[in-house]
Write a structure and sequence with these properties.
This is Nucleoside triphosphate pyrophosphohydrolase. InterPro entries: MazG-like_dom (IPR004518), NTP-PPase_MazG-like_C (IPR048011), NTP-PPase_MazG-like_N (IPR048015), NTP_PyrPHydrolase_MazG (IPR011551). Residues 41-114, 176-236 form the NTP pyrophosphohydrolase MazG-like domain. This protein is mainly alpha-helical and 279 residues long. It has 3 domains: 10-108, MazG-like (Helix Hairpins, Orthogonal Bundle), CATH 1.10.287.1080; 142-220, Orthogonal Bundle (Helix Hairpins), CATH 1.10.287.1080; 223-276. The chain has helices spanning 17-28, 36-40, 43-62, 66-89, 95-108, 111-114, 123-138, 153-166, 174-194, 197-217, 222-246, 256-276. The radius of gyration is 25 Å and the shape is globular.
């Protein structure tokens, strides 16, 4: 029966939209006729997939893979539907409640768009206003409360530091941050020789935390910067493999000195390409 007819099944309608997706989710979780794997899942087991799908969305954007982005956004949307379905089954809330909550929040936090407040503000001022409203919603909570534990560690470090900075707990310039990095690096080297594995890991964490602070002061997204560094490493190492393959060899047949020379060759090649392209 076609969509729109009385008693139509949205699951079979390719243009069924959001009602179709919600119906699919209900069918997958149906205790009698659903999928055994989907029925067995709970919030804890699904949460890692939610994080994975969010990262895959970010990856598609980074690679400008617009054709893939549509599918990745769908995968992420399905995660929201999944959690909402489980919440409804447990009597917590339903998908419509999720939609209402985010809609109400967006209207409330954008009085310059949906209310009488002036739009004559910079993006920075609007960000400050957003944070002020969030703080008011938290009420008497502690300064660092509400920074999600499941965030990537570098991202969470930056968010924690931003919260602390808003109440004055921050270095005034990058000079102090750089000095702290040198201090933490020296402590790590010392720890390597005399401390336990756990203590070494703690010192390494301290160094990463201060590096995240430097990123914040420089207005650099540390996650994006590290992703770019990973991509650069992958790209340059692939060139090393290509050049070795031309000689019928693999990295295992080479040594550090040769591969380091090829790395510098790859680096020079990229620099020349950027110059040629006016970058």
């Amino acid at each position: 029966m076609a969509e729109g007819d009385a008693g139509g099944n949205p699951i079979t309608d390719p243009k069924g939209g959001m009602p179709r997706l919600l119906a699919i989710m209900r069918a997958l979780r149906d205790p009698q006729a659903g999928c055994p794997w989907d029925i067995a899942q709970d919030f804890d087991s699904i949460a890692p997939y939610t994080l994975e799908e969010a990262h895959e969305v970010a990856d598609a954007i980074t690679r400008r893979a617009w054709g893939e982005l549509r599918g990745e956004l769908g995968d992420l949307l399905f995660q929201v539907v999944y959690h909402a379905q489980m919440a409804e089954e447990a009597g917590h809330f339903a998908f419509d409640d999720v939609v209402q909550a985010i809609s109400d929040k967006m209207v409330a936090r954008h009085p310059h768009v949906f209310g009488n407040e002036s739009r004559d503000k910079s993006a920075a001022q609007q960000t400050a206003d957003w944070e002020r409203m969030k703080a008011a919603e938290r009420g008497a909570a502690r300064v660092l409360d509400g920074v999600a534990l499941a965030l990537p560690a570098l991202t969470r470090a930056v968010k924690l530091q931003k919260r602390a900075a808003r109440v004055g707990f921050d270095w005034p310039s990058t000079d102090e941050v750089v000095a702290k990095i040198a201090e933490e690096a020296a402590e790590l080297v010392e720890a390597r020789d005399r401390l336990t594995e756990t203590e070494v890991a703690e010192e390494f964490g301290d160094l990463l935390f201060v590096m995240a602070n430097l990123a914040r002061h420089l207005e650099v997204d540390p996650e994006a910067a590290l992703r770019a560094a990973n991509a650069k490493f992958t790209r340059r190492f692939a060139r090393i493999e290509d050049w070795l393959a031309e000689a019928g060899r693999t990295p295992s047949d080479s040594d550090l000195a040769e591969m380091d020379a090829l790395w510098n060759r790859a680096k020079a090649e990229e620099k020349a390409a950027k110059t040629e392209n006016g970058i």
